[in-house]
Amino acid sequence: MNGKTIVFPVEGGFLGKRVANFFKEKGFKIVILTRGKAKIENVMEYINRKELYSQKVKRRRI
């Protein structure tokens, strides 16, 4: 892992997932801001945007 993080402001559907997977394979940490539930899936961290903006989300290490 190169220690770099990429934040995607939206999930992006098919294209967004392909781009996120490309960078994940290159060793980047991926954080996706979503309207859905916060979760960690396939080494990608999904953070609910409303929780992030209200500062309720505590940073987690993947």
Oligomer: single chain
Q: What is the number of domains? A: 1
How far the N terminus sits from the C terminus, by CA atoms, comes to 12 Å
What order do the helices and strands follow? EHEEEH
Biggest sheet layout: 4 strands, mixed
Count of DSSP strands: 4
> What is the general shape?
globular
Average pLDDT taken over every residue: 77
Portion in helices = 25-40%
Total helices: the number is: 2
Low-pLDDT stretches are none
What's the quick description here?
The chain has 62 residues and is an alpha/beta fold. Helices cover 29% and strands 29% of the residues.
General description of the model:
It is a single chain. The protein is α/β, with parallel strands linked by helices. The protein has one domain (5-53). Helix content is 29%, strand content 29%. It contains two helices and four strands; from the N terminus they run βαβββα. It has helices spanning 13-25, 49-53; strands at residues 5-8, 29-34, 39-41, 44-48. The protein has a four-stranded mixed beta sheet. β3 and β4 form a beta hairpin. The longest helix has 13 residues, at 13-25. The radius of gyration is 11 Å and the shape is globular. The model has no long low-confidence stretch (mean pLDDT 77).
What's the arrangement of secondary structure elements?
Elements: E1 5-8, H1 13-25, E2 29-34, E3 39-41, E4 44-48, H2 49-53
Parallel strand pairs: 1-2, 2-4
Antiparallel strand pairs: 3-4
